[in-house]
Amino acid sequence: MTADLRLVPTAFVTWVAAWVLTTYPAAAQPAGYLLAASAVGAAALSLLLSSRAFREKSCSTAHVFSRKARPLLAHAALALAAVTVIALAVLRVEAGRQPVIALAGQRAAVTITGTVASDARPAFFGEGYTWMLDIDTLTARTVTTTARAQVEVASPSEPPRYGARIEVSGDLRLAKPGAMAAARLTAGGWQAVRAPPVVVAVTNAMRESLLAVTDDLSAQARGLVPGMAVGDTSRMPDDLAAAFKTSSLTHLTAVSGGHFAVVLALVTGLATTMRLPRAVRALTIAAIAAGFVLLVRPEPSVLRSAAMCAVVVLGIVLGRPASALPSLALSVCVLLCVDPWLSRSYGFALSCAATVGLVLLTPPLLERLAPWLGRSLGFALAVPVAAQLACGPILILFAPSVPTMGVLANLLVAPAVAPATLLGLGATITAPWLPAVAHALAWLAGCATWWIAAVARWCAALPLARVPWPGGIGGAIALAAATGLVLFLALRRPPGIGWVNARLDKKSRRSLLAAVAVVAVVVGSPVAVRLVLRDGQAPEDWQVAACDVGQGDALVIRSGPNAAIVVDVGPPGSAAGICLDQLGVTRIDLLVLSHYHADHVGGLAEVLSGREVMAAWVSPLAQPEPAAAQTIRSLAQAGVTPQIPMPGGSLLVGEEPWQVTITTLGPGAVFGSESGSEEGDPANDASLAVHLRASGPGGALNIMALGDLEESGQVALLTAWRADPALAAVAAQPVHVVKVAHHGSASQSIGLARALSPQVALLSVGENTYGHPASRALNLYAQSATIVRTDDCGTAALTLREGQIMLACTSSPRG
Hints:
Number of helices: 27
Radius of gyration: 28 Å
Oligomer: single chain
Largest sheet: 9 strands, mixed
């Protein structure tokens, strides 16, 4: 059966336009006028060509032309109309955002009244929570105004309930450009104004009661049962979350089409068995879908599934079955018209891509696999292959590696997914009223999730579970091209056992060899470093390690059998200390604290505990003052007097063969100036930047650690190098490894990245709302380097063997 692609170009144009207009909202007004006029013109021309008068008066050639042009003009008119609506939506939202953005640019103190628009999540470093708030009124400098915008709130206090109306005070900061949130608000606390509406309160009670009835279950069940039932991953163990990411199973806890399919298949089956009339059946499905959206929250992937469900329900009402691809295209157009910022959501993009892959790729893959495996097993294998092929290029944009065990993991867990989801939902629905029944259902769901967790951990522990791949747009295009070529070579011949057997003709053999060659190039060509293991242990000859501390920095450079230089100690918590324990570090020859932000000095107590610290270097700018004072006190209690190194100052530490020469290249910008980034502050550009030459049994690695320098600080640093011959000589050495500045934020110097051109770019990053790492940073460094991320690799250990950099991805120490 041929796929109906007629609405796909319209959806594509709509998506691109939404992304452009949300990136450049100033263009929305002139674009809206132009597009509206174009849409009217295209529609009028289409109607003219369709009119009887034109057909009667036109010649045969013109008649043929009009017959072919009418559908094109109709689709063009539809696309232009959709983009016009998007432009108007952007103008409306921007009008409400501008007062908030203006105050955020001044870092004003404000009081906001609004409705909580998301469930709270733990802060990405330090204590507290973050959540989204839809603003109703805003008070600044004693003036209260009505505003229509969204802000991201961070507060150390217990979070409010979803849907509640609250009042919160704090300081505004600018959000990332293009984000739906107009600003970020740092608040001390909040006050309730009104409880959530009754329907929302019921769903809140269900979610909270589900957490209560699963509290005494095993660790995996405490995390996975709520995760697979309602998308609540707040209690997922860190090691299990990392295993899910490595084995491509994170979609199981991100409620989307799969969950809707399971729920609605059950509802539809029951409605059909009960012989409900068509209208009643449609209303039942619509009501349950709406309730499910409220229960799991209207995240982008949920909205996509709900919109397609609405199209299906409409088809039931009209008595016409809805095709998947037109339903998806229509859903995309409608949702982007309502919320253009969905075009920037990775979750929405992945949900749509997975649907397209399942619709377009599953049938031809099944035709190839069925003769060998049978239709049932062939279908079970074709589905994850299709989804992974479709989603791969998008996943590369924020995780530059290719999962090699994703298909196997999804195939193995498939039998347990539906029981875990349905039993978990049963527990959710009954938990507020029948906790004993809910506990029993949750326990049964936990049996299903035990298998899923076991598969995730086993697949993640296999060698080469993820293969490094270039990041950014270039890496995505390369993977898409390689995927397309492999599919072309694999699917172009008719299906059947004879496609690959001993009697292959010459042309078939060439096609098969070409496909194998492409796969070999895909797997092998982007690997500038070699992955040697993933078993929770660094190799015995490790030379440098980026500890997985979440959203923070902790870089360890070996200077002896049990000694190291440590650059930053991560956020509050034990992660950095555990990492040093796993690496066997009992003596710190030099502790470098690049600056005093919590995600760089928060783990100091745990790092100092049980270890001897010989010396410490600190940033010359003691900001934020409370954190700086606490850091100095902690070092003093450990008997360490910190020093502020001068640019160009060097120190040789360690013992053969692990000696390390460290040179201070200097902080970035002038202290007290505003950072070059909207998300930064002067402390970032006061970060110590250091060059380390780390010797080992296999040779020396040159390492550059850039702290949290913003673009302005990086430019100043590069200028200082070029002006000082001594610094220039150090910086001119070929760089093997760069610890990318500020967790890969968008504020990066092109000149510095090109000057360094490292072989490996380390990104110490965890879950965050800042957009770290940004595509801009990934693209800059992917031109020369293999991108290694701690949120993907865990603690990343590097060593030099026979002239080749070896990478060991270990399991995460968090938790």
